[in-house]
Amino acid sequence: MFTLRQVTLTSITKRAFSSSAVSQAAKVAVLGAAGGIGQPLSLLLKKNNLISHLSLYDIVNTPGVAADLSHINTKAKVTGYVPDNDGLKHAITGADVVVIPAGVPRKPGMTRDDLFLTNAGIVRDLATAVAQYAPKAHLAIISNPVNSTVPIFTEALKKHNVYDPRRVFGVTTLDIVRASRFVSELKDTDPAEAKITVVGGHSGVTIVPLLSQCPFSFAEEELKALTYRIQFGGDEVVKAKAGTGSATLSMAYAAARFTDSLLRAVVNGEEGIIEPTFVKSDLYASDGIEFFASNVELGPDGVKKIHPVGKVSDYEQELINAALPELKKNIEKGIKFAKEN
Ligand code: NAD
Ligand code: LMR
What we know:
single chain; L-2-Hydroxyisocaproate Dehydrogenase, Chain A, domain 2; three-stranded antiparallel beta sheet; L-lactate/malate_DH
């Protein structure tokens, strides 16, 4: 019979090592694993050979998701936890990476900031548990509003004296995934070849695509329409899903890509891995902006090098100028909440 706290479903009980001399497989925990993002993300992670233990936590339904995934013939052991019997503690203890898609999604007419009221508390509680039971884990935060949830996570870790800015990442990969897809649609190219830089944050005007840095050229109207589509791509999905949620499948794809990059750098010791992500950053510190998304080189300790934004066009500078005040407001809101709660 299952115990609800832990459903251990394969026989791999110790850390597995891959055939590569430097590679060591990892424990990855997904918090919010039974949700719209959590389930497809967990499926994609089950296929990742760098993962020896996939640990799933949600407030409901995780044993079923874990049982289902555990039948897939890839190497990761899958365990599922709910809050009973210290489930969260067991889910994250010893995790190398914790990926967090827990929280409510948008409905049509809402901004990501409208989710703050509900998601801030969820994220704060999960961060407190991470600080206690997985203080060395690398943290990939998906829950919206990312511009505020990353500062909330940071403050909670600081309260417990376990904050290392190199290990806290806001996941903005979906903006880049969308940008390269949208550009490839326009230019009729392979999306894998359309590498687009997107900086700033993860909501509306704080999402700043730097299309002048990509190898394609755009007419002015085309550029404006494309920029708007990248900034508000999330709204397209929210509208199409008509009240049943926001992007889940493309987000799972994006988060699986980010987690894989992190594991390749942190666990496998690969060099030169660059992903865009929202991290503690000095790039706009003089404007009072503590966190900023840009291309970041990942290394064994997490953030290795934050790449500068680079040369931008006048139009992109205007976009950055519009993004900064909104970003500052979002970040300050998260910090204030975490300090007061
Ligand atoms: P969902 O409602 O389908 O799933 C969320 C899951 O979180 C649910 O299973 C729920 O039970 C769980 N949950 C709630 N409180 C929890 C807690 N305290 N501990 C653990 N689990 C908890 O929502 P979704 O579509 O998966 O979206 C999740 C979040 O991701 C939303 O906030 C959404 O806005 C955000 N999101 C971010 C991006 C991004 O690019 N960063 C993209 C898409 C969605
Ligand atoms: C997205 O970009 O799709 C997510 O942030 C979800 C949303 O609310 O749009």
